[in-house]
Amino acid sequence: MKRKSIIILLWVTLGTTLFFFLFFNNEKTFRNFGITFLICTMYSFILGFGNMIINDFLNKKFPWSETTRVRAFLSIVSIIIGNFILVYFCNYMNYVVIQKSATIEEFFSAKYGFMNWFTINIALLISAFLHAKSFMEELKKTSRKEVVEQKLIAKSANAQFESLKNQLDPHFLFNSLNVLSSLIDENPRQAQKFTASMSKIYRYVLEQKDKELVTVEDELEFAKTYCELLKTRFEDSVDFVFDVKKEDYRRFVVPLSLQLLLENCIKHNFATSSKPLIIRIFSENDTLCIENNLQVREQIKESSGIGLANIVQRYSLLTKRNVFIEKSEDYFKVKLPVLSVKPNVVSTPVEDKDKAYERARKRVREMKSFYGNLISYCIIIPFLMIINLITNPDNIWFVFPMLGWGIGLAAHGMSAFAIGKRWEEKKIREILEKENKQ
Q1: Most exposed of 86, 333, 402, 434 (fewest Cβ within 10 Å)?
Q2: What is the pTM of this model?
Q3: Taking the domains of the chain in order of start, what are their residue ranges?
Q4: Average pLDDT, whole number, for the chain?
């Protein structure tokens, strides 16, 4: 048992000792105080320690965060059975062994039945409060753990995304300079034209490098400009065909994906006037396809694989939809998912964060209100029981406020913990995930 738990039980013992000694003891002597203290110590430590063992065992075998429903059911059953046994044991030790005010037969008769039932009810109220407290502590730990994990995931994803985007500048610049170097020897005039166009394209690269997604229309405009540069170098050896549906123009793709794939087409295939390389960019079933006839050139140097791998990784950080690659003897095709909405996986907008914070705050207020209500119930109902039994034991009226308030408390608990509303949240998440996949 932890030191903190022992201190709490000692304070409970002292409080109950003073209560029973002052209000239920006719002879105010040190001997009676000592006996009362020992009896209260027995009740406090046996009931407290017993409930702690049950709670710790359930926490290990059935944590609240993993098996909430099973744990709730087992907590209720264990509270009832455990406290029934513990209370009967304590009462037996008190009345039969210590005070010797009853025989074994009398203790199990109707005479002491009401006293046992009354003590069990008080024990159940206190035990319910302790289990609820345990649930709150587990909830806080789980929430903190989830927050830390989500922050680490977000930071990791953000760092990874930035790293992937930073590959694009040197990669594009290196390939463009290679093209320019070839043109300077072959056609200096075209080299000048290429340099002017390259500056225009590089401006687009700089503008889009901080964006997670761009519209298909913007990406196509950029791709067409880039294709003009390639035509400048390869002339009739390369031909480009654009056949993208107009309805796809306002949808989204990863920026610079077309440019990287066009580079791959040129890099991995030979192109001549007699055997031109034909590159098609078209729409197909919610994807943007880049297809070329396969004319594989012999690679002197092994490819770095930056282009296609970069696109695949960036898509994986933004959506669950995959980039598909098809290869046959005649053609090579890459299918890029076209997204209807902008998923925001790496960072969360400030407005969404504020809304989430407000929802969390509201939930905490509701839970705090529920536990305040529960504590009041655990204090006031036993107090009403005692008043009822002292003033008018023949008329048991405390049952009515106990049941009425108890039903209200149960309803409050269901509202605070969103019991019955989880299916709504689950359905909302399913619909949102389905929309993000489109």
Answers
A1: 434
A2: 0.44
A3: 1-145, 167-337, 384-438
A4: 77
